[in-house]
Design goal:
There is one protein chain. The protein is built from six helices and no strands. It is mainly alpha-helical and 109 residues long. It folds into two domains: 54 residues, no CATH class; 35 residues, no CATH class. The model has no long low-confidence stretch (mean pLDDT 82).
């Protein structure tokens, strides 16, 4: 879809070239849609033509979106959950009367 926006010439001159304005308007619209929850991360990346998650994280970080590189990642959330489950498991289980911490200490001797 193409959208046309009318900007007075004297104002447009101070805002940049036509190409710069087009990109900045697209980024502003996409970012506002993402912040409002109307766009998902994949949709945002596709709209902006960003090749991978790293480029998208960089864009979000550059625009002050909190948690762009960690909390927003499903993989990071899964890793945090796995660590929490392991810690809960380790707190309840021992091996030969030794808890996990003691086993690690024994292995270092």
């Amino acid at each position: 879809m193409n959208v046309t926006i009318a900007i007075p010439d004297d104002v447009a001159v101070r805002l940049g070239s036509e190409v710069e304005l087009e990109r900045r308007a697209l980024e502003a619209l996409a970012l506002e849609g993402y912040r409002a929850g109307r766009l998902t991360r994949p949709e945002l990346g596709r709209m902006l033509g960003l090749e991978d998650g790293y480029a998208l994280d960089g864009f979000l970080q550059a625009h002050g979106v909190a948690g762009a590189t960690s909390a927003s990642s499903d993989a990071d959330r899964e890793a945090d959950d796995l660590v929490a489950r392991f810690r809960a498991f380790a707190a309840r289980h021992t091996l030969g009367g030794l808890d996990i911490k003691d086993l690690i200490s024994e292995g270092r001797r």
